[in-house]
Task: inverse folding
């Protein structure tokens, strides 16, 4: 079965790659120059382009992301005192928990907040330095944050590999260097493609985590989970209702994971639409709107994760088992998705 799925994913990737032979060669794109620096950008002529509306949407998105970043910082600086409100990651195999104690989700929440602030810096910079070779030095850290999140989730909620920093440095250099040396539009295509790969991978991983968590929580009865010291004290007082609703929240654990899926999906859809219709203004405007939705949603998740109550003694997020063959499948899907997006875009243009 594993071999069949691997061969199927390779076949899918190969079929998409072969389809490029039948794609029409797009007309030559002449990049416009940045209004401040005068350098060539990664942006060609856009039908109906209105810099006034684009700047307005960009500033609105930046303002919302700034508020989201502040809320995220406040949430992680004031974690819940009650142990039952602290979410723990559990990396599971096909039949049991690998780690009986779990890993607190504090590091993941910190990475989401970092993701918000790094993207905010990149988006603010795009107002003064249009997306291009100069901007990519800042833009690459947006993608680096996504890699950090994926690696942390794949490592059971905590990055312990001592060589990880070196690998991140290698990624930054390998992402920036081709963009600087390659000519337009190859440099723009390369950065756009690897950015889409990260967006697809995030959405896939969040969906996998939500499904795994829902399945394990549904199967786990209250008696199968260990009681904490706070649970024992509350049971002695007989206040079961108060134990289940410690702090007010608009959503119960683990439904806050739906917010992660929504956030990553909105940004992914916006990126795909912008790729489909790269020469039209409305899709570009919609892409900027996704920043005003996605990153406040990430901050909302951090708030919910630190405030949402659970009917179980411990809030658990189950990270699905990801052996090498599954990593390969996810990687193939994360590459096939962007390739298919680019192929459709060529057909539309």
Result:
């Amino acid at each position: 079965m594993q071999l069949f799925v691997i061969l199927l994913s390779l076949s899918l990737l190969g079929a998409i790659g072969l389809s490029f032979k039948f794609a029409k060669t797009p007309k030559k794109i002449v990049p416009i120059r940045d209004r401040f620096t005068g350098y060539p950008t990664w942006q060609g002529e856009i039908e109906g382009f209105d810099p006034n509306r684009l700047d307005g949407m960009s500033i609105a998105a930046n303002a919302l992301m700034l508020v989201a970043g502040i809320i995220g910082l406040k949430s992680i600086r004031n974690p819940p005192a009650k142990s039952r409100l602290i979410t723990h990651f559990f990396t599971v195999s096909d039949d049991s928990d690998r780690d009986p104690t779990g890993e607190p989700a504090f590091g993941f929440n910190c990475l989401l907040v970092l993701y918000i602030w790094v993207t905010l810096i990149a988006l603010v910079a795009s107002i003064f330095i249009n997306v291009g070779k100069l901007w990519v030095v800042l833009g690459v850290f947006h993608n680096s944050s996504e890699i950090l999140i994926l690696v942390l989730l794949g490592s059971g909620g905590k990055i312990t590999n001592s060589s990880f920093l070196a690998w991140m440095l290698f990624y930054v250099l390998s992402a920036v260097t081709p963009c600087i040396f390659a000519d337009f539009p190859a440099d723009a295509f390369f950065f756009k493609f690897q950015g889409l790969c990260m967006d697809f991978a995030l959405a896939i991983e969040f969906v996998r985590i939500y499904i795994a968590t829902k399945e394990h929580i549904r199967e786990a009865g209250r008696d199968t989970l260990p009681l904490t010291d706070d649970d024992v004290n509350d049971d002695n007082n007989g206040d079961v209702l108060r134990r289940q609703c410690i702090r007010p929240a608009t959503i119960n654990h683990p439904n806050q994971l739906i917010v992660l899926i929504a956030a990553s999906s909105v940004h992914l859809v916006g990126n795909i639409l912008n790729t489909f219709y790269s020469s039209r203004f409305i899709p570009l405007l919609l892409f900027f709107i996704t920043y005003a939705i996605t990153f406040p949603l990430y901050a909302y998740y951090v708030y919910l994760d630190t405030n949402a109550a659970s009917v179980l003694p411990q809030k658990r997020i189950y990270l699905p088992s990801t052996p090498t063959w599954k990593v390969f499948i996810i990687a193939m899907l994360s590459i096939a998705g962007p390739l298919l997006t680019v192929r459709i875009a060529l057909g539309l243009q």
Notes: Confidence is low (pLDDT under 50) at residues 222-249.
